[in-house]
Amino acid sequence: MLPLVLIFGALVPAAAPFYHFIQQRAGHHLADLVLAHLPAHDVASPIFFLMYGSCIAAVAWLLGRPQLLVRGVWAYLFLQLLRMATIWVLPLEPPLGILPFPDPFTEHLFHASTAVPITKDLFFSGHTATVVLLALAVRGRWWRGVLAAAAATIGVLVLVQHVHYVYDVLGAPLFAWLAYWLAGRIWPTAPA
Q1: pLDDT tens digits for 122-137?
Q2: What interhelical angle do 126-137 and 66-89 show, nearest 10?
Q3: In angstroms, rounded to a whole number, what is the distance separating the alpha carbons of residues 123 and 169?
Q4: 26, 77, 85, 104 - which has most CB atoms within 10 Å?
Q5: Quick check: 169 and 125 in contact, CB under 8 A?
Q6: Could you tell me the sign of the dihedral formed by the alpha carbons of 161, 165, 171, 176, in that order?
């Protein structure tokens, strides 16, 4: 499947140097009134549970629907490319009070092992956008509702953890939709 070849043959090898570069460059702090009034708490475990639980459930559902699965994989490729582009264009410093949480999966796949956690991969929230993308990929009101609720909860939790600005979370659904729309131009499926 071509999008998997592109993800693992091109995107993954390019990701580690890219994220190391963005971690080293100077960025800007953004004013965020919500984070200024929201105490930081370590909620990494619920974030991981919701994120990877959503991924496992949605991919298991999509495995029985190959047309939708292929479009979803294309969309994930586009989502990662869009995220790298926005991070490149908008150099940001992490929010004040950040409680970094190295994600073992993304650290291994996209960041490669490093002593310094990647904290400047900010606009837009990849965890939130990924689950929104899954909600777009599946069919059925129940599935979409559950995944949309998980995405919203993850969005709130990454703010509680102070690993993203509110702008990062609010931008995530827009970019997830754009990635899914772009994937539909390459791999059209039946309407939702």
Answers
A1: 999 999 999 999 999 9
A2: 150
A3: 8
A4: 77
A5: yes
A6: negative
